[in-house]
């Protein structure tokens, strides 16, 4: 049964890649390195050839780095800082800070929904990368200013996916709560998406077609993700074996991930993404089982919390949010460190019991499908981190007397309206 489901998942990946490639082939002229180089030059990134006999002290003082024999000159430092910040918005630390802030200080349901949308869009985006296998822009003519993710393929851009999916999910799931701020949310979302997408062009990591491909993945899977959440979330929480269903889905998504010809970090990162939203699902399922008030009770509790928070100043609310964030992040970093060590030990024992779970690399460099020590560790580590974030950390906040009375936005936003 598991093997059949895994084959279905792989077939779905193949069909998606086929459709995606046929659509992208009509715009293949946008997969041109010269366009990326022109964009870089517009913002002051220059790439010039350096002869081998040229002395180091004769190089330009404003050189940013060396790309082989090519000297990269940055003539606009502010553009470099801006676009590095933009690409950092799509990194792991930005996700940890933003998702936990949503969950601990705004609304647990909104935080969970945003993580689910992010996870679904990222999963299919990463899978398409390993199936399409289009290279990143070459240097020259492009100046590569980012060493992260350089071993991954370029199409589609997952930065473009998350740069559009996360703001859109926040706007969509908070619209019913903060209707007066929809226009402001759209403007901020468009600005963030634009900055993240353009930063990948500036750093020389993606072509224009890669960026458009990422936006296409977002527009294709965002409706699917929101439909699944709206349609099946209540049934999932009402299911007695919901946690087992979540784990089964997570394992199947990992087993059905496309195989790789050569190692790159995309597959391991995807296992971490799946672990994140599966761990949070299990945590929220457990929270629901332990305390499941009716809708009327939830409304009454929210109104009571708002009345109790009237006496607090905005500085008190912000201070509590900062304390929760600091304590929670410290707990998660410790959890990640411990879970990574435990995951490696567990994976080594599983490898002895079930040898087929190991990844074997043959003489021709082909990586055979399997879970593997690294992949299991990634899944286990981030599943534990998200589970602790969703279940144990809020309990710790209550014990320390810094629990969330109401959403911080209920207190802060009226000051700006």
From TrEMBL:
The keyword Transmembrane helix applies. It is found in: Endoplasmic reticulum membrane. It is a multi-pass membrane protein. The chain crosses the membrane at residues 78-104, 110-128, 149-174, 180-201, 208-229, 241-258, 270-288, 317-335, 342-359, 379-397. Keywords: Endoplasmic reticulum, Hydrolase, Membrane, Transmembrane, Transmembrane helix. Residues 110-226 form the Phosphatidic acid phosphatase type 2/haloperoxidase domain. Belongs to the type 2 lipid phosphate phosphatase family. PANTHER family: DIHYDROSPHINGOSINE 1-PHOSPHATE PHOSPHATASE LCB3-RELATED, SPHINGOSINE-1-PHOSPHATE PHOSPHOHYDROLASE. This is Phosphatidic acid phosphatase type 2/haloperoxidase domain-containing protein. It comes from Orchesella dallaii. The lineage of its organism: Eukaryota, Metazoa, Ecdysozoa, Arthropoda, Hexapoda.
């Amino acid at each position: 049964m598991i093997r059949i489901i895994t084959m279905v998942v792989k077939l779905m990946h193949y069909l998606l890649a086929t459709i995606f490639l046929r659509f992208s082939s009509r715009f293949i002229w946008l997969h041109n390195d010269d366009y990326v180089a022109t964009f870089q030059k517009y913002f002051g990134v220059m790439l010039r050839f350096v002869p081998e006999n040229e002395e180091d002290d004769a190089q330009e003082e404003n050189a940013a780095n060396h790309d082989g024999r090519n000297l990269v000159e940055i003539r606009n430092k502010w553009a470099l800082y801006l676009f590095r910040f933009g690409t950092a918005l799509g990194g792991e630390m930005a996700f940890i800070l933003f998702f936990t802030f949503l969950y601990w200080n705004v609304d647990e349901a909104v935080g969970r929904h945003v993580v689910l949308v992010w996870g679904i869009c990222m999963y299919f985006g990463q899978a398409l990368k390993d199936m399409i296998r289009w290279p990143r822009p070459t240097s020259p003519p492009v100046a590569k200013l980012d060493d992260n993710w350089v071993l991954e393929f370029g199409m589609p851009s997952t930065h473009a996916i998350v740069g559009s999916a996360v703001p859109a999910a926040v706007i969509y799931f908070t619209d019913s709560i903060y209707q007066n701020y929809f226009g402001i949310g759209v403007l901020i979302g468009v600005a963030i998406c634009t900055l993240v997408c353009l930063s990948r062009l500036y750093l020389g990591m993606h072509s224009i077609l890669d960026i458009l491909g990422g936006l296409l993945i977002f527009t294709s899977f965002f409706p699917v993700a929101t439909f699944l959440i709206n349609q099946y979330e209540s049934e999932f929480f009402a299911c007695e074996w919901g946690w087992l269903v979540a784990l089964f889905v997570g394992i199947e998504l990992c087993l059905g991930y496309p195989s790789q010809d050569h190692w790159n970090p995309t597959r391991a990162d995807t296992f971490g993404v799946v672990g994140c939203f599966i761990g949070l699902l299990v945590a929220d399922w457990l929270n629901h089982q332990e305390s499941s008030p009716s809708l009327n009770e939830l409304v009454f509790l929210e109104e009571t919390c708002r009345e109790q928070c009237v006496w607090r100043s905005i500085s008190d609310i912000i201070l509590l949010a900062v304390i929760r964030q600091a304590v929670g992040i410290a707990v998660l970093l410790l959890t990640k460190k411990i879970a990574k060590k435990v995951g490696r030990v567990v994976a080594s024992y599983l490898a002895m019991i079930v040898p087929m779970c190991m990844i074997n690399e043959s003489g021709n460099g082909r990586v055979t499908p399997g879970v593997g020590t690294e992949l299991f560790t990634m899944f286990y580590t981030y599943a534990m981190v998200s589970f602790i974030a969703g279940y144990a950390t809020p309990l710790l906040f209550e014990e320390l007397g810094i629990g969330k009375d109401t959403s911080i936005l209920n207190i802060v936003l009226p000051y700006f309206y």
